[in-house]
Amino acid sequence: MTHDDRRRGDRRGDRGRRPHDRDRRRPRDTDPRRVALGVLEEVEAHDAYANLLLPARLAEADLSPRDRAFATELVYGTIRWQRLYDELIGRAARRDPDRLARRVRWILRLGAHQTLHMRVPGHAAVNETVRLARQTREDRAAGLVNAVMHRLVDRDPADWDAELRRDLPADRYLSVRWSHPEWIVRALRRALAADGRLPGDDARELEALLAADDAAPVVNLVALPGIADRDTIPGAESGTVSPFGALLAHGDPADVCGHGVRVQDAGSQVAALALAAAPGDVPATASAATAADRDATAPGSAADQTCGATASERWIDVCAGPGGKTALLAALAARRQPDASVAANEPVPHRAQLVRDALAEAGFADVPVAEGDGVTALAAGEWDRALIDAPCTGLGALRRRPESRWRKTPADLATLTGLQRRLLDAAVAGAHPGALIAYITCSPHVAETRRQIEGVLERHPGALEVLDTAAVLADAGVDLAAAAAGTGFAPVGTGAPGLQLWPHVHGTDAMFISLLRRRA
Ligand SMILES: C[S@@+](CC[C@H](N)C(=O)[O-])C[C@H]1O[C@@H](n2cnc3c(N)ncnc32)[C@H](O)[C@@H]1O
Predict the structure, then answer these.
(1) Name one GO molecular function term (predicted).
(2) To test the ligand 1 pocket, which listed residue (319, 348, 417) has its Cβ within 8 A of the most ligand atoms?
(3) Which of 32, 179, 433, 470 is within CB 3.0–4.6 Å of 71 for a Cys-Cys bond?
C-alpha cells in the first residue's frame, strides 16, 4: 500500500466507505431462488412485509427482468400457498413439517410452489431445489429435500387433492386446499351467506372467493377525474368496475403514476364515488352553486354525471391515511362543486404526511389534514358528508398482502369493532339532518360490516336512513352487472344494509360500503 493509498483509506475511514465497497466485497446475487429464499426468511424472522422488503433485495441483486419477475412470484406465491405446501410436504416427508429446520421448510415450500403453481417442469423443480439446499449450507438435508420433491412431483396434483378431500374435515380441507387459516374460511363463508350468496351448502362460491384471494392481483390504477384520463395511460387497459379505473397487466406502475394517476383498487374508487354521488339532500351550508360553477363542469364525463353533491358542502375523510380516497374525493368535489370544501383527518403522523403528499401530488395541497381522532372530528359535526374508511381486519384485501392472512387473529376483531362502533356513534352525534355518512371497510367480516350498521341503527332508533348504495352507484355509471358477467355469480347480494363487493364477482377487493343519511 502506498502512502497515498493509506492516506485515502484513513480519510475515508469506516464512515466514509463508499456504498459500492460493500457490493465489491460481496458479489451481487444472480440466483432468483436464493434471493427469494433470503426474503422469505427475513419476512418470517422480522415480521417484515414482503412488498416492502422484496424491492430492496431485488435492487441489491443482479437479476434480469425475467428473473426479477420469477423471484417476485416465488416470494408472493410461496407465502400465500404455504398452508397447502406444508400439508403436502408433511405427507411427502412423513413427518410434521414444523419439525423441519426453518430454512429447509422454506426451501421445500419454494420447490412445491414451482412444481404446483409455476409450471416449472418436475425434474427442474427437483434439481433446483436440491441445488438451493446445497448452496445455502443445508447439505445434510439435501437427501430429504430430494426425496420429498420427488414424492411431490411424481403424483398428479389431482391425486393429492383427492387425498386431502378424503382425509380432512370439510373446513380443514378448504383451509388447506386454498391456503387460508380456518377461522378466515369460516368468516368468509358467513359473510357470503349474509350477503345472500350461499344457497344451501353450495361451496362453489366460497371456493371461488378463496381462489380469488390466492391469485396475483392485477395492478389497478385510478385516473383522478378532471386531472388525468384513463384512456391515455400508457399500457393500461379498461375492465374495472370504476368509471375512473384502469388495469396495468404489465410494466412498472411507477412508470405511469403521477399527474393524477395513482395505484388504487377499483373497490376503493367506487367507495369514494358512492359518497360523492349520493343524492344531495344536504342543506347547503353556504351559497348555492353558481351558474359559472355549473358551466365550469364539462358535461358528459363520468365524474360530471355522478356527483350528487350540492354547493358549498363540507366533506371530510376522517380515517384518511395514506390518502388514496381523499385524493379522489378532492378531485370529485373540485370537478362538480369548486365551492365545496374537503378536509382530511388521520391520527398517525407519518400516515397523515402520506395524505398530504397524495393531495399535493394531485394538486390539492390546500386540503387541510388534521392529525386527530376521527371520533372527535365526527362528533364536532362540521361536515355535510363524512367518509369513514374504518380501520378493519383487511380480510377483503388478502390477495394484495400475501402474509397478512397468517398474521391476523380473531382477537384483532374486538379492538377494531369497538373503534368502528365509536366512529359510527360519533357520526350520528355530529350529523345534522340530511348529512351523509359513507361507512366503508376493506373487510367483508359480518362483525365489521352489516352488524356495525345494524348496531348503529338499533342504538339510534329512527336517526338514520340507509340509502341503496348499489342504486346510487348505478346512477353514477358503475355497472355491477357488467363486472359480474361471466362469473356465474349475482352482481349484487341481498339483505345487507350496504353493498358488499367481492374479488371473485367484481374483480375488486371485498369492500363494504354503506351510505347513511341523518334524519331530521
Ligand atoms: C383503512 S385505512 C384508510 C385508508 C384510506 N382511506 C385510503 O383510502 O387511503 C384506516 C386508517 O384509519 C386510521 N385510524 C386509526 N385509528 C383511527 C381513529 N381513531 N380515528 C381516525 N382514523 C384512525 C389508520 O391509521 C388508517 O390510516
Answers:
(1) RNA binding
(2) 319
(3) 32
Measured in degrees and rounded to the nearest 5, phi and psi for residue 145 equal -60, -45
Share of the chain above pLDDT 90, in %: 84
User: Cα(130)–Cα(69) distance, rounded to whole angstroms?
Assistant: 22
Listed residue (165, 198, 187, 106) closest to 416, CA to CA: 187
Whether residue 18 is found in the same domain as residue 103: no
Residues 238 and 261 in one domain: yes
Dist. CA 351 → ligand 1 center (Å): 9
Per-residue pLDDT, averaged over 373-381, amounts to 98
Q: Which of 55, 78, 101 is the last residue of a domain?
A: 78
Same domain, 474 and 350: yes
Residues of the domain holding 24: 3-78
Q: Encode pLDDT of 269-318 as tens digits.
A: 999 999 999 997 655 443 333 333 333 333 344 434 445 555 589 999 99
d(CA 343, CA 355): 11
The best mutation among 328, 346, 353 to test binding of ligand 1, ranked by most ligand atoms within 8 Å of the C-beta, falls on 346
Residue 136 and residue 13 share a domain = no
The answer on 496 and 382 residing in a single domain is yes
- The pTM score is 0.90
CB of 347 within 6 A of ligand 1: the answer is yes
